[in-house]
Amino acid sequence: MRLDFEFGEVLAFVTVAQTLNFRAAADRLYISQPALSRRIEKLEAALDMRLLERTTRKVELTDAGRQFLNHAVVILEELDLARASMVERASRAKQLVTVACVPSVANHVLPEILRLYAGTHAGVRIRVIDESAGKVLDAVLEGEADIGISFLGAQNADIDFTPIRSEPYVLAVRRDHPLAVTTTARWADLERERLIAVSLNSGNRVLIENVLASLPRRPTIHYEANHVAGALGLVSAGLGVAVLPGLALANDTYPGLVGLPMREPELSRTLGLLSRAGARLSQAATALHDLVLQKIAE
């Protein structure tokens, strides 16, 4: 259905009806009196009825004018509510923070940080992208994520990489495994073990492969999983052992497993906070950025 009058005309009529004075109404609307008169005339023409009686001394509403005023006020109130609703929606959209991180951080570190963050930023919505280190880096570079938590990106000129802490790699074994009684594990020990590894697409695998390639006798990888969680499931089933980042066994998530720090050589990764170089974070994203720095470094 097409309306033959405009918002400005309805507003002009309501303002005149409230002031009963064309000069006062024109001043309130910041328009001239002739412009105000034209709006009233156009509205009356569209409705095909006279809404106001105007003399040199006073302005009065006609019966039709009084009836239309009731509807016009409701129209303006509804439009104002619609405007406020859209403003609120836009504000909520601006209060979205996206953080990309490797799965070990998403599982064992980020939940507690987000719990603390919600205490001071309850209105901010959070989107978590828990992916491999390479995909975390891509998400930050492409602007899909405001910040990232990963161990790749330090050498990328388009990334601001802030080191947070060094994370050692451990050998995940079942508690009933013979090695479980020791305090560390040597890479040479893996020759006699059925090794479980994460996918070649994983940043973890790249670091591990660099060490395996340097061993006199390379261990055989019997099982491969796309993600750390899958590898831990295979270890829990007694199918072998796996070299994984220490965070994977944090918070006693796998009580049946123990993590032995790798030695000869030691292997670690530097976990860092990523953001696009030169990008300006929103206030909400900056607050989360600072909280991540504070809590992961503890």
Furnish the topology, listing elements before pairings.
Layout: H1 7-19, H2 22-29, H3 33-47, E1 52-54, E2 59-61, H4 63-94, E3 96-101, H5 103-108, H6 110-120, E4 125-130, H7 133-141, E5 147-150, E6 159-174, E7 185-186, E8 195-198, H8 203-212, E9 221-225, H9 228-236, E10 241-245, E11 257-263, E12 268-276, H10 283-297
Parallel strand pairs: 3-4, 3-5, 7-11, 8-9, 8-10
Antiparallel strand pairs: 1-2, 5-12, 6-10, 6-11, 6-12
GO cellular component, one term: cytosol
Organism: Nitrospirillum amazonense
InterPro entries: HTH-type_LysR_regulators, LysR_HTH_N, LysR_subst-bd, WH-like_DNA-bd_sf, WH_DNA-bd_sf
Structure description:
With 298 residues, the protein is an alpha/beta fold. It has two domains: 86 residues, Winged helix-like DNA-binding domain superfamily/Winged helix DNA-binding domain (Arc Repressor Mutant, subunit A, Orthogonal Bundle); 173 residues, D-Maltodextrin-Binding Protein, domain 2, CATH 3.40.190. Strands 3, 4, 5, 6, 7, 8, 9, 10, 11 and 12 form a ten-stranded mixed beta sheet that branches. A two-stranded antiparallel ribbon has the order 1-2. Strand 8, helix 8 and strand 9 form a beta-alpha-beta unit. It is rod-shaped, with a radius of gyration of 33 Å. The two termini are 63 Å apart. The model has no long low-confidence stretch (mean pLDDT 89). Pfam families: HTH_1, LysR_substrate. Belongs to the LysR transcriptional regulatory family. One of its GO terms (molecular function) is DNA-binding transcription factor activity.
